[in-house]
Protein: phosphoenolpyruvate--protein phosphotransferase
Amino acid sequence: VTIKLHSLKTLAAITLDHYEVELLTNTGLLADITPGVKSGAQGVGLYRTEIPFMVGDSFPSEDEQVRVYRRVFEAYEGKPVYMRTLDIGGDKQLPYFPIRHEDNPALGWRGIRFTLDNIQLLMTQVRAMLRASSGMKSLHILLPMVTSSHELTQFSIVLKDAYTQLQADGLSMHWPKVGIMIEVPAAVSQIPLWANRLDFISIGSNDLSQYLLALDRNNPHVADRYDHVHPAVIHEVYRTVQLAKQYQLPLSLCGEMASDPIAVVLLMGMGIQRLSMSAAKLPRIKWLIRNIEVQWAQQILADCLLLDDVDDIRCHIQQAMKDKG
Ligand code: PEP
Ligand code: MG
Structure:
């Protein structure tokens, strides 16, 4: 099977009834670059910048960030790279910048809330992204934990400032594409209101599930209750996919759902366009996509939307996959 999966590298992720999906990779480590490129990923769907920030004992300088980011852009040779602004707080801490104790860190100072309160940090990072991708059209800036319009407004001021400064220095850049993670449930309903301010959206199914279910999957007392194919999650992801289509917003999904075959069947039924996952899991998901029909997945989705139990959903899909062979 390994050999067979490997041979898929140059083949498209296309279903038996000719629906093509773009498969991208999640990364953050320079060590992931080679496996990512080798897996045949069509770009980086989620570059977690908190990872390069975690090595070292202080915030990386702008020049240091430029060097790291540039290697990613160069490795992917003009393919899209969705670079997320620093997403720390909650369960992600920097050793040299511990965030003081919070009673509810998941609901606290994290993602864009943190970076907008540390604007110089955000400015440095955005400048580094623009510099690292200069001359290329690959930069997609992805904002984590967006909850309110105000955050979009504040970010666009930072981006404009950074761009203007670098332009004045003579740097030649393309204006980047800007989008947000759909991971705070509040973001879903605001897609219609934000559609004309965004170039794309990306579903962060890990946090979206955590917040919809009010379940921390890292808490051993409740972790076994967490499941991203919970009916509430499926219905909300489906609503997001439909809103994205209605408002013509390019959409991807970059949480763990993207590499869970059971969930991917449902996502294919929804008509998802783009999935991003770790390089190691990409070949298997591509193999799955190449061996199903969207029409088949649509029927399974329709069945599952009527089920109210997560185990029944998993069983139903597993059985359908077994029947298919
Ligand atoms: C997510 O929340 O689904 C996601 C991809 O972001 P992270 O796992 O880095 O929080
Ligand atoms: Mg997240």
In short: The pocket of magnesium ion (ligand 2) is lined by residues 183, 204, 206-207 (CB under 6 Å). Residues 137 and 174 are 6 Å apart (CA to CA).
